[in-house]
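Protein in question passed on here:
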Amino acid sequence: MSEFQKLYQKHEKRLDGSQLLLRAYKSALYHERWKKRNIDVKELKGYKGLKEVPFTSANDLRIAWENHSVEDLILTETVGFWYTTSGSMGNKKWIPWTYGDYKLAGVATAHILMNTLSPTDRVLTIVLPPPFISGTMPFKLLENTGNLGTPVEILAFSPEYVQDGFGLLLKRPPTAIVGTPSITLRMADEVAINTPIILKARAEMEKSMKLRVAAFATKLKKIYPKNIFKDMKYGFFGGESLDPFRKAIEDKWGLEAFDIYAFTEGFGGGYECKEHNGMHFPSSHAIVEIIPDKELEKEENDPEYHPDAILITEAEKGLTGELVLTDFKEAMPMIRYRVRDAVKVIATDDCACGEDSVRLKIIGRTDSVINLGIIRLSAIIFDQLLRKEFKKGKVKLWEVFVSREKYKPKITLTVEPEFTNNEEEFKKELFESLHGFDLFQRGYDNGLFVFDEIKIVSELKHEVYGQGKSRLVRYHQNFFEEVKF
C-alpha cells in the first residue's frame, strides 16, 4: 500500500473522528439541501457515508450568502480572513478562513516551494490584492518559509504596480517568480518597452557612459526578462492553465516553469514537480474525487440525475472527468464541492521525485464559462447583458467564439437580432452593456483579452448537444495549444 493510500485511510478516520459531516450539517449552506434528501447525518460513516451527501456548487454558495446571515453559515465564532472569488456570475462569493485554515494552507505551499527554492532566492510575486486569495500569498510565503527556518525574500506587486517597481527589480533582481501565465507574458512586453526608458533615465542621472551604451543597445535588439534577470531560475504559475504559455514563458524569462493549482473556496491544491508529468495532489487536508465523463454525460442528458464519483485513490490512469473536493476547513468546510475543472489522470504510480500521489492534468471546464484565462465570464451573465432593453435593436440569438491574438484570448461576438434599426449603434449598445460588467471591464481595460468585433448576421446556427441544448461558446481548435509570442 502506497503512502498516498495510507493518507486516505487516515482521511477516512479523520472524516469520522472530526464529525465533519455532522458539523457541516449545522451550516445553512448544507442543512436544507441535505434535509430535503432525508439524510440522517448521524448514520453516515466513512467514504460510503460521504457519497450519500449531494455535491455542492458555486451556485449553492451564492444562494446561501443571499438568503442567510453569516452566523447561519459559519461554524466558528471567529474568522481569521475573508476571501472573495472573481465574480464571474456577477455576485462574488465570500469565503471565511480561520487562522488555523490559513496556517495549514500556507505551510503546505511553503513545503512545496522549498523543495525547489533556497533561502538565498528572491521571489517576485505578481498577485491580485486582498480580498483575493492570491493577495495573501506573499505574506504566507514569507511567514511559513520563515517557520521552516529558511525564509525567502519576497518582492510583491499587484499587476498595475509592476511597472512602478521595475526600478527596484533592476537593482534587486528576482530569481523566481509566482504569478499567472498570461500576466507574466504581459510583463515580458512591459520589460521590452520600459527597459530602454529606465536605462536612459538612469544614464542621465548617474552620468554613466556604460548605461548610455546599454540604453542604445536596447533600441537595436528587443530586450526580454531573461536579458535583464539573468539569475532567474524558476516560475510557479496558477490561476489558468500553464500549458499554452509554458514554452513562451520559459523562452522569454529563461526559467523552468511549474504548474500549480489552487482555488479560493478551500484546500486541495496541486503542484507540478521537476518531472513535469502532471500535477501532484498530495491532499494533506482534503479528499479528492473525480466524476467520470460518462457520469457527466448522463447528468447532461438528465438534469435530475445525480452522478457518481470515484475516489482519487481508485482512479485509473487515463480517466477524465470533473474535480470534486471535500476539505477539513474549520470556518466553512467545502463538502463535495464541484470545482468545475475537467481533469485527466496522468499517472497513479510512484513519481521519480519521491512523491507518490496521483498526478492530474487540468484539461478544461465543465460549466458554461467563457474561458479567457485569468478572466472567466459566465455565459449566463453574458446572456443577461445581451438581452437588456436596447434602443437600436433586440438580441434573438448570440454566440461567442474564443481564439487567440498571440498569447491573449480574443473573443468575437456574433448576434442574430430579432430586429435592429441601426446596426452600428446597436453594436455600440451591446458593447457598452458588456463593458458595464465589472469583470469584463477590468479584463478589457487592462488588456488581459482582446475584444475583436461584433458580427450581426441574419441567421445564426448553434451547435447542438445533449437534449437539444445550444452551445453558446465555441473555442478555436488551437486555443488550448502552445501560444506564439
Remarks:
- Residues 427 and 454 are 6 Å apart (CA to CA).
